[in-house]
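Annex B, item 7. Sequence and structure tokens for protein A, then protein B.
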Amino acid sequence: MAQAQPTYDEDTYTYGLKVIGFNGLILIGWIIIGALFGQARETLIWIVMFCPLRIMAGGYHASTMPVCFTLSMAIGVLVNMILKICPFTSIAPVVTGLVLLMFVVILTDKSQAREVLVLGVIETFLTFLWPSVRMTYVLVMALNLVFLGLKYLTLKCTPCQGH
């Protein structure tokens, strides 16, 4: 008996490769921006902390790739400007980050809330081991909160059915 050939949707693979390449371009752009600010290490730390929470928590997504790229690069510049001006190492950023984490968890889809909370707690713990990342932690939580807020502001309201 001959085995059936696996089927695949070429459009799906093409789209997947396009998304992977686009996200890679954004990451490279952020690293270049960090290097231009003399903060490549801090930018890498921010990326490592920001991306997993953003993936799990969700939030606003731009309508087109050019808009997404422009907003992403603007965020990269803003993050580096803030980190250059405010290299907090006190406990205040940790407390601020925890408050922001609480709102991020509340706004996250319920199916992902536990994972987001666990990751946020791990990142909080890392700020105690590595005080120089405390301001980065605040920025991560604040940006995730902004993206979640924008998502909820852009949702279209639908009337209740059957009530």
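Protein B:
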Amino acid sequence: MWRYESLKKEALGWHFSVDDEGGESLLCLLDLFCQARWPCTATVRITRPTEEILRVPGMLGRAIAPARLRIQFPRGAVADETWSIESAKTEMKLVLGAHKLRELSDAIQSLLENQNDFAIGPNVESDDSNIQFLWFW
């Protein structure tokens, strides 16, 4: 998981890639979240993407990659369409409602099936530069 230190509009947002083992592990975690009766939070360690992966989106600039991803599914406390990304130097926090949790799971499954170059994010149509999409490579 990474973002580019760039002001170019096409570089806005976060980028995500996963190997088979990491993808399967995340799918299992998200499935447990979906089945849970209560709010869930998990923090996973993530690795810095390789130079090869960083070149895939075709963007230039320094990549910023946190060391941890915290996924929160506050079941019942947020709308199903909730999508929020917050980042600090070492951790990215992703808060998801039920529909967005399923959308993330579907996106990871697509990556494992070698489908990529797409994004998920909030259900808005806006030119707001603060909107944080997650691009899958």
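Comment on protein B: The chain has a mean pLDDT of 90.
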